[in-house]
Amino acid sequence: MTTEQLIEQIKIKKSFLAIGLDVDLSKIPPHLLDTEDPIFEFNKAIIDATHHLCVAYKPNTAFYEAYGLKGWKALEKTINYLNENYPEIFTIADAKRGDIGNTSTMYAKAFFEDLAFDSVTVAPYMGKDSVEPFLAFKDKHTIVLALTSNQGAFDFQTKLVDGKEVYKQVLETSKTWENSENLMYVVGATKAEYLTDIRKIIPESFLLVPGVGAQGGSLQEVCKYGMTQNVGLLINSSRGIIYASQGKDFAEAAAVKAKTLQQDMASILNAQ
Ligand SMILES: O=C(O)c1cc(=O)[nH]c(=O)n1[C@@H]1O[C@H](COP(=O)(O)O)[C@@H](O)[C@H]1O
Questions:
Q1: pTM for this structure?
Q2: Looking at the domain assignment, is residue 152 inside a domain?
Q3: What string of DSSP letters covers 30-83?
Q4: Does residue 217 have its Cβ closer than 6 Å to ligand 1?
Q5: Ligand 1: distance of its center to the CA of 88 in Å?
Q6: Does one domain contain both 27 and 124?
Q7: Is the complex ipTM higher than 0.90?
Q8: Which structural domain, as residue segments, surrounds residue 122?
């Protein structure tokens, strides 16, 4: 999917919500555990109930890898279900990969070719030659971790090196990489006050912003400092939406939570 198509969907749906499909078998409704593929059944119900309220889904691969072959199969079924039934949805494999060049190429093939995701999250720690293999894929997006939502972000990302914070160096240096137009960045919602500085370096790039909901980040603050003319934001919430109920009404309850966020987004867009 191109960035232009993503922007069009945001305008049509008045939503820039990404729903995180972080499926934990101990948290899903117990009645699903009797089905052949509980993870996929859960995802399918959530997707069918919420697809009109969001523009993206973000399965975090850890929640699938933890269940071995069955988990990976459920991830494959989920991305195929999305691509076949809701091709207008932007898909994010939250895998946080990155390695030496030839290995990164294989990671990129895994998520862009075998599992046909639109984007993948990538850690920039190993530098240019670890990220460029992902950027080489046309109309696919590489979402580089810039300033993450967790407390550990202050261990390295905000440290000064040669007089500049590491996360700013990631933003500036990554702009020089080949096919950098395919870059997006992760900035945690809990770090909204940093967005003014971040926008000075990357005024137009799309940001994936997790941390609204369970981690306490504020949608309003993120939009105040990070929104661009083309919105430029994908706000993710996972647990705050998908675990709204453990009953048979779990998908409807998730839709209620998603709708609350979507309506807040529509108000922000209308006021823009
Ligand atoms: O790359 C991410 O998506 C990510 C980056 C970050 O800085 N913080 C962060 O929470 N995430 C992911 O975003 C999701 C947040 O989930 P909730 O806290 O349940 O909404 C999880 O899948 C995290 O792994």
A1: 0.98
A2: yes
A3: GGGGGSS-HHHHHHHHHHHHHTTT-SEEE-BTHHHHTTHHHHHHHHHHHHHHHH
A4: no
A5: 23
A6: no
A7: yes
A8: 98-213
